[in-house]
Specification:
1% helix, 61% strand, single chain, globular
């Protein structure tokens, strides 16, 4: 075996991370090290086929092969204990996969044509999906397990030029010589036209409805490096400034700076300041993983700790609440605890079990109930052959579910012991859209437009209403209770404003995630502090 450093790289300002890779005499990667610790091991057979992979947490996956070197089985530590594989593949004489069996014994079958294209899929519950192709190998027809078909047509470049849905509604597409989409006619008859600059970036988008009404939906400008410099849409005007490597430095809305970012030398986010003027600071460990969020250079908001393989081990908030995770031999979360680290301050403590497909089958433990009393919990889960939840039982009470061959839920029952307390039934149209729901004898109906967007919901004489703009984005909702909401969208195609019963709220986004909420006077009212996931929603004062 030979061992030599392949890469040494700086991870952060004043923090360094080295990666060392080892190979066998055949050039197979056998071991990876980061900061002196082994992060991954690989094992190979005499034919140089990988037969085992073990991560830094000791979680191992093994492979078995057939006589034609085809991969036959994948085994996890959990499946090996049960004497079975987590996945088993079958092949025909040509080496095409004909079936896949999961860890619970559910088998999915495949029929292939001579070119190795899937003609049909037979699901474990008996459903059958079918596909047809043109001479170029493009899918021209797909039929779901309920027998409903979608059809596709292509132009000479192999681009989709039309899609006809299960109801016979068609949308069409046109492209320029560069293969860029310049026109899209949706199933409602709305035509969207897009113009591009010489670098292939969209600069103008115009929609025309089926009555001939024309509306500019957005305009965009770019700098000499192709970075978005300005976007205008829906009454929102944003301008942007970037570093030479393309990372965002500043963002303005209608001339006001709403976001500023700084970065470490490796490009990782260092700080982020929104209109509240309160910066957030990000620190990372030697492996580039987020270590903590800070309000200033000292006050820690949230701290993160990891296992050797990088799984979240513990999250600690500024209030002292700790969320701790333990994992089983297959990498599933086996225990979750929430509390302040003391027995008296334990809020939640749950142990979880899983099947070989990774579905949670059981949860036991305790949680702090109403009145701050510890309540025991014991929940079991069952799944069908398609890994869909069919039963959730909590000490004799729970819910049962049934589905059709396409995965649409047909039935929900709530039960206590042997008694059924409530039943919900569901019906769908050929596009798999929910059309009726029956609960306790009450019927709720749903209607959709040709694009598949819900336009109304009716229940016991009450009616909700939904409206959409020419890009099929929801712009108005009136609920069954009579409450109204209007939505507004910006040039980033995000919902940047909402008016609920006369009260207006606007949103600032970064990387498609909400950072700040503003009131009708454009004053910041709430901040969304994001670490791994959403950490807090706090007042902007």
């Amino acid at each position: 075996m030979c061992s030599f450093p392949r890469r040494n790289c700086k991870a952060l300002d004043l923090q360094y991370s080295s990666a060392l890779y080892s190979y066998d005499i055949h050039g197979n990667l056998t071991r990876s090290r980061e900061n002196g610790k082994i992060t991954e091991r690989n094992e190979y057979d005499r034919k140089n086929r990988i037969v085992g992979n073990t991560d830094a947490d000791g979680i191992e996956i093994r492979c078995r092969y057939g006589i034609q070197d085809e991969q036959r089985q994948i085994l996890t530590a959990g499946s090996r204990k049960q004497g079975r594989a987590a996945q088993t593949l079958s092949y025909d004489a040509r080496g095409m996969v004909t079936a896949a069996q999961d860890g619970c014994g559910n088998r999915t079958g495949y029929t292939m044509d001579g070119w190795g294209r899937v003609l049909s899929v037979e699901t474990a519950e008996g459903g059958r999906e079918e596909y047809a192709y043109d001479c170029a190998g493009n899918v021209i027809k797909s039929t779901d397990a309920n027998g409903n078909t979608i059809r596709y047509a292509y132009n000479s470049m192999g681009k989709v030029c039309s899609i006809t849905d299960q109801s016979g509604n068609t949308e069409t597409f046109r492209y320029d010589k560069e293969g860029r989409e310049i026109q899209h006619t949706d199933r409602n008859g709305t035509v969207t036209e897009t113009k591009y600059n010489v670098y292939g970036k969209p600069v103008l988008q115009v929609c025309t409805d089926n009555k001939g009404n024309r509306q500019i939906m957005g305009t965009w400008e770019y700098d000499s490096f192709g970075q978005l410099k300005k976007s205008v849409s829906g009454g929102f005007c944003y301008t942007y400034e970037y570093r030479p490597d393309g990372k965002l430095l500043n963002k303005w809305s209608s001339g006001r700076k709403v976001l500023s970012c700084t970065y470490y030398r490796d490009g990782s986010l260092k700080s982020q300041t929104d209109m509240s003027g309160k910066p957030l600071y990000y620190e990372y460990d030697g492996n580039g993983r987020l270590k903590c969020l800070k309000e200033d250079t000292d006050a820690i908001l949230t701290e993160y700790r990891y296992t050797a393989a990088g799984r979240i081990k513990e999250i600690i908030t500024k209030s002292g609440i700790r969320t701790s995770y333990a994992y089983d031999e297959d990498g599933n979360i086996s225990r979750l605890t929430i509390g302040d680290g003391t027995a008296e301050g334990l809020l939640y403590d749950a142990f979880m079990l899983y099947d070989l497909n990774g579905n949670r089958t059981g949860k036991t433990g305790s949680r702090l109930d109403v009145g701050r009393k510890q309540a025991e919990m014991a929940v079991s889960y069952r799944y069908d052959s398609m890994n869909r939840l069919t039963n959730e039982d909590r000490n004799g009470t729970g819910e049962r579910y049934a589905y059709d061959l396409c995965g649409n839920r047909l039935l929900k029952e709530q039960y206590s012991g042997s008694f059924v307390d409530a039943t919900e039934g569901y019906r769908y149209n050929e596009r798999n859209e929910l059309t009726e729901r029956v609960k306790a004898g009450s019927l709720t109906t749903y209607r959709y437009d040709k694009n598949g967007s819900i336009i109304s919901e009716e229940e016991e004489g009450r009616r909700s209403e939904y409206r959409y703009d020419l890009l099929n984005r929801q712009i108005y909702v009136k609920t069954l209770e009579g409450k109204e909401q209007e939505n507004f969208y910006d040039g980033e195609n995000l919902r940047a404003g909402v008016t609920e019963n006369g009260k207006k709220t606007t949103f600032l986004y970064h990387n498609s995630e909400i950072l700040t909420e503003f009131d009708g006077e454009s004053a910041p009212v709430r901040r969304h502090i994001r670490g791994i996931g959403l950490s807090y929603v706090v007042s902007a004062d």
